[in-house]
Design a protein that fits this description.
9-stranded parallel β-sheet; binds NADP nicotinamide-adenine-dinucleotide phosphate; 6-stranded mixed β-sheet; alpha/beta; 34% helix; 17 helices
Length: 495
């Protein structure tokens, strides 16, 4: 069940929010501590979905500032009015008179940490007469979620157990796999009743929350930060398009990524995407590495296969595939060629960071004639030395004679959309220009290249392709690339 908390300061605002929330929710939580003066009888009377009545005191993270007796009176009144559920704190439950229609959620909140004694605390809540036991506690590490999942798995008693905070977000989604009674989803951004809460619409539509069950396969992206990542949107859309019982989670990993991967083995996660800054650190926890991942020293994909975690890299084939198609004029043309269309081509690679390294290794393997140029020239020299190619000073860029330009710097990326890594004069008709930057979809470099008669490839192509290759490695099924591309474009257009 998805429960939408109603957090509004007046009767009128509560009613307006209830209108928005009702279609999204299986159950509503009336947070009376935000509006103790609101007409509880009218709210209960007019409800179109079951309600939980809560009046949380400040000591448990709520807004109620009045006398304890006044607070308990609100809860008692909710019981007397026949509310479907009342949420009462463990230290107050004995002070309420039970009613025949109302079920009691007995709760405990800890805004500092996940308590050491979770099973014991859970037993206390049940012993206090909880029809539903609730524990909400602050995660200080993503690993804390494991303790919540273990608790949920260990009990048959109806239980709401979740981690708050960004590190705990996954417990609000994946708890359902382990039998949680309900999860909380906010009616809109800014309307969260606790930190780390996911939007109810996102739970329903993106994570397909209500389809999650014991057998649901779990995937996710290991990153830090992770909030901006488009990967959950595109992979979940791909699973939905193929009607697969799978969910893909944003995993904000602040600890050592190898420690994270080892600890999360107990959940049987079937695949990970790995991104900044963990592509190298994660390798220590893997059982096998593909030759490519070993060579470039970076893993962006982990596949769980035959009880082993296998690390590989789809950034390289995705970028090289897109470049080959652009140079040859299509997939079919590439397939008909005896050797790579990049062989012997003069390629100017702008940048010397992680993306540049991946592309440089791929280009050299295909026999391209590569020149690297980077703002910090020493880094260009180091990369050129590593892969065996030339380095060029940025001051000499305008006169470089090349067939293909690949930008792997972040120059031109939102919000600095007027910047370009290459002077217009260096662009000539017939060149292929590839920009790793995908926000905006057409960078200044790509626009000027198009105007100069070059063939252009945007970063979206690379991004979607690396994700599609991951999807195929995990599932063994062709990825719905059009769906994935549509989701990326919609996100970038702010839809
Ligand atoms: P990174 O390791 O941090 O490298 C950043 C690169 O950009 C370095 O070469 C850096 O030069 C250069 N740079 C940054 N600001 C600059 C400036 N103001 N002027 C000149 N050069 C500048 O990052 P990365 O992982 O390689 O990613 C680079 C870009 O590629 C990002 O925009 C990223 O979004 C994009 N990317 C896209 C995809 C995709 O799927 N489309 C995949 C990977 C990366 P210095 O060495 O001098 O600092």
């Amino acid at each position: 069940m998805i429960c939408v908390p109603i957090v509004a300061p007046s009767q009128e605002r509560m009613e307006r929010e209830i209108q928005f929330a009702t279609p999204l929710a299986d159950i509503l939580e009336l947070r009376m501590d935000y509006a103790p003066e609101a007409d509880l009888a009218a709210l209960i009377e007019k409800r179109r979905k079951p309600v939980i009545v809560t009046c949380r005191p400040e000591r448990e993270g709520g807004q109620f500032k009045g006398e304890e007796s006044a607070r308990l009176a609100v809860l008692q009144r909710a019981i007397d009015l026949g509310a479907d559920y009342v949420d009462v704190e463990l230290d107050s439950v004995a002070k309420l008179r039970r009613g025949s229609r109302t079920r009691m959620i007995v709760s405990r909140h800890d805004f500092q940490r996940v308590p050491e004694n979770l099973p014991e605390l859970h037993r206390e809540l049940v012993a206090a007469g909880a029809d539903v036991a609730k524990i909400a506690c602050m995660a200080t590490s993503i690993l804390d979620n494991l303790r919540i999942f273990r608790l949920l798995q260990s009990t048959k008693h109806p239980t709401i157990a979740l981690c708050m905070g960004e590190a705990g977000t996954i417990s609000r989604i994946l708890g359902r796999k382990y039998g949680v009674f309900l999860t909380f989803g906010s009616v809109a951004r800014g309307k969260e009743s606790a930190p780390g809460q996911v939007g109810a619409a996102q739970l329903r539509d993106m994570y397909r929350y209500k389809q999650i069950g014991r057998a649901t396969a779990v995937y996710g992206v290991i990153a830090n930060p992770v909030g901006h990542s488009m990967s959950p949107a595109i992979h979940n859309a791909a699973f939905a398009a193929l009607n697969m019982d799978a969910v893909y989670l944003p995993l904000k990993v602040e600890c050592d990524p190898a420690e994270f991967v080892r600890a999360f083995r107990e959940l049987g996660v079937l695949g990970y995407s790995v991104t900044i800054p963990h592509k190298e650190g994660v390798m220590a926890a893997l059982d096998e590495l593909s030759p490519l991942a070993k060579r470039i020293g970076a893993v962006n994909t982990i596949v769980y296969r035959k009880a082993k975690l296998h690390g590989t890299n789809t950034d390289v084939p995705a970028a090289i595939g897109a470049l080959e198609e652009a140079v040859a004029g299509g997939k079919k043309a590439v397939a008909e060629m005896e050797r790579s269309p990049l062989a012997g081509r003069r390629v100017l690679l702008l940048g010397a960071g992680g993306a540049a390294r991946a592309v440089a290794h791929g280009l050299i393997e295909k026999g391209a004639d590569v020149t690297v140029s980077n703002r910090t020239h020493d880094r260009a020299v180091a990369l050129a030395g590593e892969v065996g190619c030339r380095a060029l000073e940025v001051s000499a860029l305008a006169s470089a004679a090349v067939d293909v330009v690949v930008n792997t710097t972040s120059v031109g990326m939102y919000p600095n959309v007027h910047a370009t890594p290459l002077p217009k004069e260096a662009l000539r008709k017939g060149m292929v220009v590839f920009d790793a930057v995908y926000n905006p979809m057409e960078t200044r470099l790509l626009r000027e290249a198009r105007e100069a008669g070059c063939r252009t490839v945007g970063g979206i192509r690379w991004f979607v392709s690396q994700a599609a290759l991951q999807f195929e490695l995990w599932t063994g099924r062709p990825a719905p690339r059009q769906v994935m591309e549509r989701v990326v474009k919609e996100r970038l257009e702010g839809k």
